[in-house]
Amino acid sequence: MTLKTEQASDDEFAANSKFSRYYREILPAHCTFKINSFSDLLKSNATKHQSDEFWASGFNWRVSVYPKGRNKGDEDYLSMYLEIVDTYNLPPDFEVYVSYKLFVYDHLKDMYYTVQDADGKIRRFRSTKMEWGVDRFLCLQTITDPSNGYIRDDFCIFGAEVFIIKHSGLTDAINLYKHSGLTDAINLYIWEIEKFSTIKDKEYYDSKFFVAGGYSWYLSMHPSGHAECKNQNLSLFLRAGWAKRNPRLRLYAEFKLRMKNQLNNDYNVERICQHWFCASSIACGSHTFVSLVDLNKASNGFLVNDKIIFEVEMTALSLIKN
Prior knowledge:
Elements lengths: L4 E3 L3 H4 L4 E6 L6 E5 L2 H6 L5 E2 L3 E3 L2 E8 L10 E9 L9 E12 L4 E7 L5 E4 L4 E9 H4 L12 E9 L3 E2 L5 E2 L11 E6 L11 E2 L3 E3 L2 E8 L10 E8 L10 E9 L9 E9 L5 E9 H5 L11 E11 L4
Antiparallel strand pairs: 1-2, 2-9, 3-12, 4-6, 5-6, 6-7, 7-11, 8-9, 8-10, 8-12, 13-14, 15-23, 16-18, 17-18, 18-19, 19-22, 20-21, 20-23
């Protein structure tokens, strides 16, 4: 389909340089949802209607429609906002830089009325600012008048697109994002386990989630080995925390799994790995990462004062194997 756009001609918004407004033919890439009985929504005491959660660009999102405006003074307008959700697996100081578009379908034009920040402005989503949007998306008088095309048989169709902006990267395809777990220089996640003796009898022990390339990951360690290596080796794997939520996504990663020698940094244990991660193959690592004999030998420096240190260094991350 040829991309066709038309500049929106609503004079009310023509002088508002904060947002670009236009029509386009193409369906929103990430989310569309219908609000039925729109007139009943306006008559109700509901302050907002929310879409189902959807996945886009490595994160989960939700769109909120405020039928009588979000803020005081905007009661004659419909407001639309984009919210980042399910952030429990992100570090407290996460930052996600986003360019987004919000839509409502015009049945008469058979096109989508589109609103986005003007001049390519980027919005920063973080724990203290989880929601960005447009307070005066459309005048209620405009959207509720069937002759304008936005409402038909008392329903409206809304949508959203969300694109992550490059911040600090690995490849042209996908980039790593700065947060407390990853260093800017080498995209390194460090996992320190204190009181190792208290977990060594567990079947497995998982790290907290960390974000690389806009996707969530975690390390999984089997203190006494996994499968055929039971009671012989410690096993270590990188797991894709995003895979079950995104069954159609395949992501290629090259990375290094490392256990620190706390007495001599020149003698770390390291495994170089590469893998296509997907819903049916969420983990990659080493069953024989280190023998239990070597792990428990004090002079090797792997287990010091009952503490062990693992690292994962992401060296390549892409939707396409380069």
